[in-house]
Amino acid sequence: MGTTVVPSSMKVSIPQGDQKDDGFIGGPNPKDLDAGALFVLKSRGSWWHCGYHLTTSIVAPVLLSLPFAMSLLGWAGGTVCLALGAVVTFYSYNLLSLVLEWQAHLGQRQLRFRDMARDILGPAWGKYFVGPLQFAICYGAVVACTLLGGQSLKFIYLLYKPDGKMQLYQFISMFGGLTLFLAQVPSFHSLRHINLVSLVLCLAYSACALGGSIDVGNSVSAPPKDYSLVGSRVDRLFGVFNGISIIATTYGSGIIPEIQATLAPPVKGKMFKGLCVCYSVVVTTYFSVGISGYWAFGNQSKGTILTNFMGETKPLLPTWFLLMTNIFCLLQISAVTVVRIRICYLPI
């Protein structure tokens, strides 16, 4: 009978045949494990579930800023950076998953980045550097997503009531209450249905951004298309770094160890299939939104394509279309925020 090894800091192996649902029959007391290990240790997911989790961890409404990034890099630079980002991160994520598979085969299963740092660099690095660093990054992402969710709610409110008196903090509080409710899921595996909906939603608002860009770009009220890089030489140089950082941020948020820990044994090959599902969505959404938005607005592309759709004096698209797009974004932001909230517990 095979064995499944829980975090190496516990120095305990649990017979696979003695695992049942969320508990351990004849194994160690779950109270002896930390909260992060318990959260990811429910290893019953398939490679499809892995694809859902990966897509939600990487693809977020920040992709709507890709036309702006391309306006800082130009056609050649923007397209090359998008392609390089996809190739480099896919290779890196797959290589990391293979290392985790090999370590599990050797009997030292690593469930989190903290566990990897502990085994590679030593216990102090995992506990006092990588763990707090991951917590800080996820905490910042939760704050940013909550603010963005509140802004989306307020935008929807103002579409229906332009003279409304409600303040932004009220919408932030409402969005926070929603994510607090969704965050009560007992394990990462329990997020699979939410993350499937998230995958569909990111395809939906990306399709809206693509359709909106094509419609505006072909309309009589289309802004003049100028694809030159604007500003002084120094401004263009800093713009290149800004554009590269935006593209790198959109790609570089995968949480491989924690997601791979949710897979049911045998794990071999499942993570690669999950990455293929994820990157089919990534390539479809990133390239379609980035290229179509830059084609429609050129160097006038703003921080998010939705801002361009609002126009200078009046919306360039119907109100119902803008409302639908923002609802898709709002719902997907809630899924991304829940994933980040739950990841915040893992380094503890």
Estimate the mean pLDDT confidence. Answer: 81
Number of strands: 4
Report the principal-axis shape: globular
The major pleated sheet works out as:
2 strands, antiparallel
Strand order of the largest sheet: 1-2
Measured between the Cα atoms of the first and last residue, the distance is: 32 Å
Unreliable residue runs: 1-32
From the alpha-carbon coordinates, what is the Rg to the nearest angstrom? Answer: 22 Å
Number of helices: 12
What is the element string, with H for helices and E for strands? EEEEHHHHHHHHHHHH
β-strand amount: under 5%
Helix % is 55-70%
Structural class: mainly alpha
What does this structure look like?
Helix content is 66%, strand content 3%. A hairpin with a 7-residue loop joins strand 1 (3-5) and strand 2. It has helices at residues 35-40, 47-58, 66-105, 113-121, 123-160, 168-182, 192-218, 233-251, 256-260, 270-297, 305-309, 319-345; strands at residues 3-5, 13-15, 19-20, 23-24. It is built from twelve helices and four strands; from the N terminus they run E-E-E-E-H-H-H-H-H-H-H-H-H-H-H-H. It has 348 residues and is mostly helical. Residues 1-32 have low confidence and may be disordered.
